[in-house]
Specification:
The chain is of the alpha/beta class. It is built from eleven helices and ten strands. Bound molecules: 1,6-di-O-phosphono-beta-D-fructofuranose (FBP).
Length: 262
């Protein structure tokens, strides 16, 4: 087992990261279902739920809102990001330094790497700089490992997701966030490929409570260390109910049906 540098953003060695970088990555369209989610305060309030081990946001949101929540929320600062307005080969602009993330109170950094993109080389070099600086600050390192680009036909195939989690291990992430590869076997391969470093499942677009919780249950049983989720929480009218159920599945090892009281 790899020594853990992620204690600040885990609970019982598991993570439930609430991601709220969608305003940059997808644009305000992601807030249309629940217009209150446009206001970062709404999502900071959601992140005070006991189940949430860290809130991932971009620099501007952290600057404006984290000072009011630093006693109740662990901050994971996402250092790079790209808007949906960008039409080129997958790439992600570094918009915040590790030093500044530390100054803002972050306990962890988040960094996207698009393995397989024509920009993979520069992204990995940027990740190297951030990862080593994070070590100096004792901050955890979370990699959004999303292979994609013109050379990749299927970015959620079992082999691609296993490769994605392995990239996290090889490049020095404490936690690697991958897309769900579609089956328990594929998720297990991805977790085994990370060889003791943590793999968390990415949430994806909103689905029903039962479908979502069942997928999370499958991922956990396959060896995942938790979840990094955005839309499936903040696009719900009652995110607290779903977080209660996620807490039961992730930290109390309940089934999805038990968590829903079925
Ligand atoms: P979701 O749970 O809403 O899928 O969020 C996870 C996440 O990684 C976000 O951090 C990010 O904004 C988004 O997905 C990026 O997804 P994609 O690049 O596939 O559009």
């Amino acid at each position: 087992m790899i020594p853990s540098a992620d204690a600040a953003i885990t609970r019982d060695d598991k993570a439930l990261i609430l991601a709220y970088d969608h305003g940059l990555e997808h644009g305000p369209v992601d807030f249309e279902d629940v217009p209150e989610s446009t206001d970062p305060e709404t999502v900071f309030d959601i992140a005070t739920h006991d189940a949430v081990t860290a809130l991932a946001v971009q620099k501007g949101i952290a600057e404006g809102y984290y000072p009011s929540y630093e006693d109740d929320v662990e901050l994971l600062l996402k250092l790079n990001g790209t808007s949906n307005l960008w039409m080129g080969e997958p790439n992600s602009a570094v918009n915040c330094s590790v030093d500044y993330a530390a100054e803002l109170g972050a306990k962890a950094i988040g960094f996207t790497v698009y393995g397989g993109s024509n920009h993979e080389i520069e992204m990995v070099e940027e990740f190297r700089e951030a990862q080593e600086a994070a070590r100096e600050h004792d901050m955890s390192v979370v990699m959004w490992s999303y292979p994609r680009g013109q050379g990749l036909k299927n970015d959620t195939s079992a082999g691609t997701i296993a490769y994605a989690s392995r990239l996290g291990l090889e490049l020095g992430a404490d936690i690697t966030k991958v897309k769900y590869p579609g089956s328990a076997e594929a998720m297990q391969w991805a977790c085994e490929s990370a060889a003791g470093s943590k793999v968390v499942m990415s949430g994806g677009s909103k689905t029903s409570d039962r479908d979502f919780l069942s997928t999370v249950e499958t991922a956990m049983r396959a060896g995942a260390s938790g979840l990094a989720v955005g839309r499936n929480v903040f696009q719900r009218e009652n995110p607290t109910e779903l977080l209660d159920a996620l807490e039961a599945v992730i930290f109390e090892e309940k089934t999805a049906d038990e968590a829903l009281g079925l």
